[in-house]
Amino acid sequence: xxxxxxxxxxxxxxxxxxxxxxxxxxxxxxxxxxxxxxxxxxxxxxxxxxxxxxxxxxxxxxxxxxxxxxxxxxxxxxxxxxxxxxxxxxxxxxxxxxxxxxxxxxxxxxxxxxxxxxxxxxxxxxxxxxxxxxxxxxxxxxxxxxxxxx
Length: 150
Hints:
- Pfam families: Enc34_ssDNA-bd.
- This is DUF2815 family protein.
- The chain is mainly β.
- It has a single domain (3-127), classed as CATH 2.40.50.140.
- Helices cover 11% and strands 33% of the residues.
- The protein is built from one helix and seven strands; from the N terminus they run E-E-H-E-E-E-E-E.
- The protein has one helix at residues 18-34; strands at residues 3-7, 10-14, 46-48, 60-64, 72-74, 93-105, 108-122.
- The protein has a seven-stranded mixed sheet with strand order 3-4-2-1-6-7-5, with helices on one face.
- A hairpin with a 2-residue loop joins strand 6 and strand 7 (108-122).
């Protein structure tokens, strides 16, 4: 599946792609099975980006994913990628392997997504802040003295 990686826990799907239907259907089947058809009030890991306060999410669906361990991350040749390789960012395109679960807990009925694996496909437009640039040391102003009050 080719999707834009928003950050380490959110994936963005363009609304018109077929993958949205596949993910929605998987979530619906999981929720239906977990709660014997009682799907009302279930909080889903998939949400409409048009309902978000973040303008970068408009026109997308957001899939929220968590994992307690780092997922397998590889390049197109299936060679491991580390954080030091600096390939994965908030706008790159990736293929993913996910696992959908549904359960009842102290927070209510939930449909969750676990990120199992990521395959880097290609760079994309970075979402969110541009990252800016480092300041010039002269921006700090005058000399530092020993009588700093903290």
